[in-house]
Amino acid sequence: MVEAKTVGIKKIAMYVPPQIQDSAYIAEKSGIPQDAIEVKFGIKQRHKAGPDEHVSDMAIKAARQILEVIDPLELDLVVYCGSEYKDYYLFNLAAKVQSAIGATNANAFEIHSLCSAGVWSLNVLKSMMLCNDDIKNVLLISSSKETDIVGFDNPRARFMYNFGDGAAAALLVKGYEHNTILSSHMITDGRFAEDVACYGVGSYNYNKIATLDYPLRNLDVRDPKSMKEKLDPISLPHFVEVIRKAAEKSGYTANDINFIAPIFMKKSILQGILSEFGLTEENSFILENYGHCQSADAYISLLEAEKIGRIKKGDLVVMLGAGTGYTWAATAVRWG
Question: In terms of residue numbers, what domain contains 195?
Answer without folding.
Answer: 182-334
